[in-house]
Design brief:
Layout (H helix, E strand, L loop, with lengths): L4 H10 L7 H12 L6 E2 L5 E6 L4 E7 L10 E3 L2 E3 L7 H13 L5 E7 L7 H8 L8 E5 L5 E6 L1 E10 L3 E2 L9 H15 L16 E9 L5 E2 L2 E10 L5 H14 L4 E5 L10 E2 L5 H8 L3 E6 L5 H5 L4 E4 L5 E2 L2 E2 L7 E3 H17 L1
Parallel strand pairs: 3-6, 3-7, 7-17, 8-16
Antiparallel strand pairs: 1-2, 2-6, 4-5, 5-20, 8-15, 9-13, 9-14, 10-12, 11-13, 18-19
Helix pairs in contact: 1-3, 3-9, 7-9
Length: 355
């Protein structure tokens, strides 16, 4: 079994997958069926294919959805450009080639999710179905510049609601201004990150952050507002959890006497929590011995956090999130180097052989 990863990538980048992944899913399933693999699409839209039987069980995971807008395909001077070229169709092309090229003594599973950029419903379904628990390790495809990434920050999002009391703006003392409460809340966010119990700087990920991102409040220009809502973005480090953060922030607000409360944004799936994998793990050593670059942390939250709780998990793939000129992934100039995709496929194949 084999596939040319560059030929597949050229077709994949031409296929828009920011509004619907149907076309991209069909393309992937066809690329698996042509050489004799037998893919399955589960109820969550995940594409699943396995080779071999028994232990060890290695899972290769990445995603087929992209952010909008679609950026057209172009090829020039050893580079493929277009939406998804590095995030994450380049990593997918390398994983597909390694999956088909491998001759597993145990089991290798390719598990490709449909909505990593939004709610990770596919990845959550894989967890609910027990795939990570059946795995000895998981390799998640993202643009890491061919480095093995063993840790990543988590991301939580939510709203702090500040409660005041309406009054006529001509008599502001008769009410309680929720916007003024929000100003005190912003000050409290600064002191939250300075608490003695705040997670200390992670050796690879640095310090957690807490950032106010949007604010809205009031309904009339001549009325003291009774409510103000402040959105915040939390980038966590291990071992902080989604619920642990919410409890700690609400306690902090109460201790400062603020009539304000935090709640996570509504979503069907858990937020992506921070994770870290021991650099001595076999999957890390196997990738490095096969030619991957020095282990480091990954700067973005990924679905790796869903799998890391059950099995040693790393992030690996061709492409970069940003280069010396600025953003690459999610940007109009998104690209991946052809030689890096080919190299990633070779490294993954070697690591699978070793594992």
């Amino acid at each position: 079994m084999s596939v040319d990863p560059i030929a597949f990538l050229e077709r994949a980048v031409r296929e828009p997958s920011h509004e619907s992944v149907d076309g991209m899913r069909d393309l992937l399933c066809g690329a698996l069926r042509d050489p004799g693999a037998d893919p399955d699409v589960d109820e969550a839209g995940n594409v699943l294919a396995s080779r071999g039987d028994g232990s060890p069980h290695v899972v290769l995971n990445t995603h087929i959805d992209t952010v909008p807008p679609h950026v057209p395909y172009a090829r020039e001077a050893g580079v493929i450009r277009g939406r998804g070229s590095c995030d994450a169709k380049g990593p997918l092309a390398a994983m597909l080639a390694a999956f088909l090229e491998s001759d597993p003594r145990g089991t290798v599973t390719l598990a490709v999710t449909p909505d990593e950029e939004v709610h990770s419903i596919g990845a959550a379904a894989l967890v609910e179905g027990g795939l990570p628990e059946r795995a000895d390790c998981v390799i998640v495809g993202e643009p890491t510049d061919l480095a093995v990434c063993t840790a990543a920050k988590g991301r939580f999002q939510g709203t702090i609601t500040c409660s005041g009391k309406n009054a006529h703006a001509a008599e502001p003392g008769a009410g309680e201004n929720a916007i003024r409460i929000a100003a005190r809340v912003i000050d409290a966010l600064e002191s939250f990150t300075e608490r003695p119990e705040e997670p200390t700087d992670h050796p690879e990920l640095g310090a957690p952050t807490l950032t106010p991102t949007t604010i809205e409040g009031g309904t009339a220009t001549n009325q003291v507002p009774a409510e103000c809502r402040l959105s915040v973005d939390r980038r966590s480090v291990p071992p902080e959890t989604q619920e642990g953060f919410a409890d700690a922030l609400n306690e902090h607000l109460r201790e400062r006497g603020l009539d304000a409360s935090y709640g996570h944004a509504e979503r069907e799936t858990p937020f992506l929590e921070a994770f870290e994998t021991d650099r001595d793990a076999l999957v890390v050593r196997s990738l490095v011995e096969a030619g991957a670059r020095t282990p480091r942390a990954f700067s973005a939250a990924t679905e790796a956090s869903y799998f890391a709780a059950a099995a040693p998990t790393v992030i690996f793939g061709p492409g970069v999130l940003a280069d010396d000129e600025g953003a690459v992934a999610h940007a109009p100039r998104e690209y991946v180097r052809i030689e890096d995709v080919e190299r990633a496929a070779s490294i993954l194949t070697g690591a699978l052989d070793s594992l």
